[in-house]
Amino acid sequence: MALLSRFIVAAFALAATVQGAPQDLGQPGQPSSDPCARIGGQKWVAPSEVRACFTSVRVNETVKANILDVINKTLNFHTSTNYQIRAPQPFTSDVRVNLPTELERIKRQFYRSEYDFHVDLSRTLKRTNDGHAAWTFACYDSLFVNYVPTPLTLLTSPNGTQNVHISPEAFNVSSAEFPDQMDVWQNALPGRLNGQLETLSGSRVLLINGRDPFDAVNANTLITGSYQAFGTRQNAFFSSYQRGNESWNYIMGNFAQQSLPLSDTVRLTILRSNRTRPETFVLPYRSRFGSQSKSFTDTASWRANNCVAQPGTNGVDRNSNDPASRLAAVEDPMARYQQQPPLPPALAGKYPLDVLIDSSPLSNVVLPEELQPSLTAVNGSRSVSQFYLLKDGVTGILALGSFSDTDYNELHRGLLVGLLNLKSLGATRLIVDVSNNGGGYVCAAHVSLFVSFLSNLSNAIGLEWLHRIIVGPKSTSEPQAGLDTKARAGPLARSIVDELVKNPKLDPEGFLNYNPTNWRDANNVPFNASTNWLQPVVTKTVNRRPDAFSPRLGQECQPDGFPYAPPTEPLFDPKQVVIVSNGRCASSCSLFSISMVKYEGSKTVVLGGKQDVAQQYCGTVGGQSTNFRGIDTEIKTTKLKGHPLAPPDLLVNGGQGIAWRLAFGVTDREEPEEWQDHPADLNLPITAKLANNPVAIWEEVAAKLLS
Ligand SMILES: *[C@@H]1O[C@H](CO)[C@@H](O)[C@H](O)[C@H]1NC(C)=O
Ligand SMILES: *[C@@H]1O[C@H](CO)[C@@H](O)[C@H](O)[C@H]1NC(C)=O
Ligand SMILES: *[C@@H]1O[C@H](CO)[C@@H](O)[C@H](O)[C@H]1NC(C)=O
Ligand SMILES: *[C@@H]1O[C@H](CO)[C@@H](O)[C@H](O)[C@H]1NC(C)=O
Ligand SMILES: *[C@@H]1O[C@H](CO)[C@@H](O)[C@H](O)[C@H]1NC(C)=O
Ligand SMILES: *[C@@H]1O[C@H](CO)[C@@H](O)[C@H](O)[C@H]1NC(C)=O
Ligand SMILES: *[C@@H]1O[C@H](CO)[C@@H](O)[C@H](O)[C@H]1NC(C)=O
Ligand SMILES: *[C@@H]1O[C@H](CO)[C@@H](O)[C@H](O)[C@H]1NC(C)=O
Ligand SMILES: *[C@@H]1O[C@H](CO)[C@@H](O)[C@H](O)[C@H]1NC(C)=O
Predict the structure, then answer these.
(1) First to last CA, the chain
(2) Distances in Å between the alpha carbon of 140 and those of 80, 119, 136, 462, 500?
(3) If pLDDT is split at 50, 70 and 90, which confidence band does 23 have?
(4) Which of 333, 402, 408, 699 is the most exposed place for a label (fewest CB within 10 A)?
(5) What angle do the packed helices 61-74 and 114-126 form, to 10 degrees?
């Protein structure tokens, strides 16, 4: 219990730890004695009630062993396991977790409930601070989402000092999103604050639970995961925005939104605007039933609908005649945790993907109208990509919330049309806003084949396309507009490739990641079906452990991965391009930003990070991500499920993500880009006027970096 306790002590969010006496499942009893029946069918409940349900189920040792076996064996395919034991500088103090040893610890440890086990397991994986390597379990993660109506922002005052504030737009956001719960919070406010929630917006926060607000911010950095850099994990505490596929979305931040029922209340000491005396009050957290959770009425139906393995949890043999096991027909139940809009089932799993996983599904809270860009969207705008021209007439904007879309061709075309239109309107410089862009598709070697096969049902937007069309054809964009990569070459990975080389009929369409025909060598020459691309295996000692990787892989996007011919001239001078985000730009977004910055000299801005903390413009680079279900499909299709290193089928509604390919660096070409430095050029101070106001931010960035 030692490690878990340390985190509980450290984590502000765990003010309320797991409690309650576990019961045996399936025990007959009166309905009223079932703590899950109390919350079943309810929209809003108290977090303590959710915990009472969660902690009422004991660990089933068979299930626990199964989960650990699946994760342990899936991590053999994760490129970064040995690197993450101790990451190189500048991330040595951020990433230090020996997952094989930790899994052994968890295996031996006793837990009072399955929920306690899940919290420890989930946080252990999160300690990689690698958003590709998360463990998600829909039984608990965001089954109910825990909220307070006061998201926070780190504001810089006119004299330059930084303070935590209740976001100026807090009341507007909450009253629109939680109309059926505002009374509870209004009535919880004491004395003359009663019913005055609106007047809290913008207040300076002096104390959180009686302590400096940054105690809570920093405690959260230990459990939030996803990004290597400390500053980026601090930023997770605060509110932010993102361009969604249908609207401008508002991200509440980890203070106001929790994916587990961690906190029951928070005690805030604040200074309201225009007041001189601090005021202290307690606000309750309230848990709302998750938008993607399956409804239930009691323990048995909670378990059946949300906790046990679902169709799609496990991989399939793609050559099976059983129609029910056709991957194309079944959605990945864990796709909800990917930080990109969901894709049609026929396509998910098809394209090389590099995307972040988070225990909170993507936000569908809407940015208040007053803060949404009021500029006219320029032609070419669609879905997650929107184009605007600032009032100065020379600064073009591309707001890009993701690298994914339901229409592959249209999104590629939209990017080109939008940039061309900006130019024709007079733009000579470009701001790309990738706030909270959790990635998406890289590009696929076989896109053209697949697109003609499935027509326009496709979905990937190549980060490499965007780099290529902005900078034009040059040595850094043709044929490789991204970064070279390597995959891990453990014994089972090698056996999978051996089988595919021996018998190409196992995967004639090239659906499998291990199919040689999907990749090219370091000189960008395609492998043929009989090339064993993992050979000769490159052995390497990583943190004093022997490890094995594929030879270096080149690009797989050009020329046939792009649905349109790219222009022959650059669209913008890359030195007149600025990439803006809150640092939370991952995966494909990182690959794009790094290419633009390190090859082309573009500038970067992080919004409102703490002044004395180094700000990274992106994180969780990866190269290509997949998950247990994807690996299981590779294994089953090559008939290797009997291999001693093959993970068993997972018994629960969970998923384990991994980085399947890892990109090589730009500065140090022989080491992964993942743990190389990505310092932002500017940490933009956020004033009350700029907070979550994209247009005001873009104008400020243009004035500071593009004149
Ligand atoms: C534990 O889980 C296994 C697999 O789902 C199941 O067969 C077994 O009945 C469970 N044991 C108990 C005590 O519930
Ligand atoms: C993980 O797998 C290794 C063998 O590859 C084994 O030695 C170790 O005990 C396993 N750990 C767990 C927690 O099952
Ligand atoms: C800066 O301004 C804040 C309020 O805006 C004030 O609390 C603080 O004392 C000021 N600091 C200095 C050094 O003037
Ligand atoms: C909140 O909403 C009110 C009323 O619509 C509006 O006047 C105000 O500007 C909004 N404030 C923010 C910060 O969005
Ligand atoms: C946007 O994503 C949602 C799921 O988050 C999906 O239901 C919807 O169809 C998508 N809309 C568009 C226009 O792609
Ligand atoms: C605070 O005072 C300023 C100047 O008197 C005024 O403009 C502003 O509206 C006040 N803010 C609030 C929240 O009352
Ligand atoms: C944008 O497209 C619409 C219809 O496609 C067209 O009518 C309009 O003229 C275009 N506007 C610009 C500025 O190109
Ligand atoms: C995809 O749709 C576009 C129009 O949106 C069309 O021009 C193109 O031919 C379609 N591609 C395929 C492969 O059907
Ligand atoms: C496949 O590529 C290998 C080199 O990797 C070459 O030796 C072999 O002849 C090629 N086979 C075919 C059928 O083209």
Answers:
(1) 56
(2) 26, 9, 9, 33, 38
(3) very low
(4) 699
(5) 10
CB 8 within 8 Å of CB 17: yes
Phi, psi of 312 (to 5 degrees): 100, -10
pLDDT at 407: 73
Q: Which of 308, 355, 393 is nearest to 67 (CA)?
A: 308
**What percentage of the chain's residues is helix, strand, coil (to nearest 5)?**
30, 20, 50
Residues with Cβ within 6 A of ligand 6?
A: 273-274
Integer Rg of the chain from CA: 25
Dihedral angle computed from the Cα positions of residues 83, 89, 91 and 97, in that order, rounded to the nearest 10 degrees: 40
For the segment 335-347, the average pLDDT, to the nearest whole number, is: 62
Query: Cα-flanking dihedrals φ and ψ of residue 283, to 5°?
Result: -110, 135
Nearest residue (CA) to ligand 4, atom 14:
169
Q: Residue 460's closest CA among 473, 472, 470, 450? A: 450
**Going by DSSP bridges, is the β-strand pair 654-663/623-627 parallel, antiparallel, or unpaired?**
antiparallel
**Is pLDDT at 4 greater than 80 in this prediction?**
no
What's the chain's length in residues?
A: 707
Chain segment 630-641, per-residue pLDDT in tens = 999 999 999 999
Ligand 5 centre and the CA of 341: distance in Å?
7
> What gap in Å lies between CA 301 and CA 294, rounded to an integer?
9
* The two structure tokens encoding residue 48: 């303590």
DSSP 8-class letter at 133 = S
| Pocket mutation for ligand 7, best pick of 375, 376, 379, 425 (most atoms within 8 Å of C-beta) | 379
| Token digits of residue 400 | 């890009």
CA gap 396, 387 in Å, rounded: 7
pLDDT on residue 445 = 27
Got the DSSP string for 329-341?
A: GS--GGGGGBSS-
Ligand 8 closest atom vs CA 410: 5
CB 533 within 8 A of CB 485: no
Whether the CA torsion 434, 138, 627, 87 is positive or negative: it is positive
Supply the pLDDT for residue 412: 82
pLDDT in tens, 648-692: 999 999 999 999 999 999 999 999 999 999 999 999 999 999 999
Beta pairing class for 265-271 and 353-355: unpaired
Four-CA torsion 399, 404, 409, 411, nearest 10 degrees: -10
Please check the confidence at residue 421 and state whether its pLDDT lies above 50. Answer: yes
Residue 642, both tokens: 């009997």
* pLDDT computed for residue 18 by the predictor: 37
The answer to whether residues 189 and 196 touch, using CB atoms and an 8 Å cutoff, is yes
Give Cα separations from 203 to 151, 208, 210, 252 (angstroms): 11, 13, 16, 17
Q: Secondary structure of 483-504 in the HEC alphabet?
A: CCEEEECCHHHHHHHHHHHHCH
In this structure, are residues 97 and 509 in contact, taking their beta carbons and an 8 Å threshold? no
Q: Which residues contact 20 (CB under 8 A, 6 or more apart)?
A: 35, 51, 52, 55, 56, 113
How far does the centroid of ligand 3 lie from the alpha carbon of residue 213, in Å?
17
Name the more confident of 619 and 446. 619
* Ligand 5 environment, Cβ below 6 A: 245-246, 341-342, 383, 406
Q: Enumerate domains of the chain plus CATH numbers.
A: 144-289 (2.30.42.10)
Burial class for 271, CB neighbours closer than 10 Å (0-12, 13-18, 19+):
middle
Mean pLDDT for the chain? 89
Please give the distance, rounded to the nearest whole angstrom, from the Cα atom of residue 597 to the centre of ligand 5: 31
